[in-house]
Amino acid sequence: MEVDLPEEFRCPISLEVMRDPVILTWSGQTYDRPSIQRWLDSGSRTCPLTNTPAAPAPLPSSYPQQQQLLIPNHALRRLISTFVPSPSPSPDADGAKSLQQQQQLFRALDLASSLSFPSDAASLSQLLRLVKRGGAAARRRVAEGAVDALAAALASPSAALAATTLTSLAVVEVNKCTIGAHPAAIPRLAALLLRRGAGAPRERREAATALYELCKFPENRRRAVRAGAVPPLVAFAAAGSERAVEVLGLIAKCQEGRQEMNKGAGRLIRVLCGVLRAGSPRGVENALLVLNLVCSYSEEMAAEAIEEGALDLCLPHLAEARNGKIAKNASGLAQTLQKMQLSGFV
């Protein structure tokens, strides 16, 4: 859309202009109906924007009952309809591009609907190409029909391609919820992190990348913990994967993640300190973040970190001028560990 639109016109989940705005009754926030419906269908009991919990009573399970939780926002819908201009004829080049994207979308939808288990590598490769070329619209539509087959393919020889395709689909915000809500998607990605043998390095790498994209959605962090993803992520980080450290940084933002990490405190701290010693700037940035989150949560982990030399390791990064995030994370970790020392906890 070529005009600047007020942010209030965009759904907080999909970030696109709302076509059917509805109010979530228990929080008063407005969302586009398809996006918030997927959220409710996944079993979520909080407002996506404010994290306000629903009433103690169980959420209605059937679609008609759930509609009682959503009230049409007629005023906003009328305002959007008057503000958004009617589509005008596009120049030939733009028209051709739009037609090409529509063709890519239809081909992707046809292919997604025909996928079955086991899906062959050629079909998955073609679907991945079509999804990338079709843009956000293709990603949204394909996710509705292809997640079952892609989740099944994670247990097949084409697992790496399936994980890559899920990553591409999860770039669209609402798809993070759709994919994460599938009962097999995140558990099978977590299982891929344990793969050994031919093809395993790529499968583990693609699984970690898919988990990174999915865990940007808060509820998926808890799902990853329940799926047992933390121990294999720590093991993959120990093998040199800085992407695994990034995923741990997202999971450590939820309490369940920190609790799980506390169970293997010693190994996690050693792995993260190893990244501080020899990792890339991005790896150091994320290792500092994870250390600060877990050491703020657990005195045991703070003690492990100090014993491993984390305080001394983060001090050189305090004056890091080229990367402000590294300096910020190093400062936060140093303050956390020094506070623990002064308080006599460690």
UniProtKB/TrEMBL annotation:
Stored Gene3D superfamilies: Leucine-rich Repeat Variant, Zinc/RING finger domain, C3HC4 (zinc finger)
Q: What keywords are assigned to this protein?
A: Transferase, Ubl conjugation pathway
Its domain of life? Eukaryota
One molecular function GO term is: ubiquitin protein ligase activity
Q: In which pathway does it act?
A: Protein modification; protein ubiquitination
Q: Which InterPro entries match?
A: ARM-like, ARM-type_fold, ARM_PUB, RING-Ubox_PUB, Ubox_domain, Znf_RING/FYVE/PHD
Name of the protein: RING-type E3 ubiquitin transferase
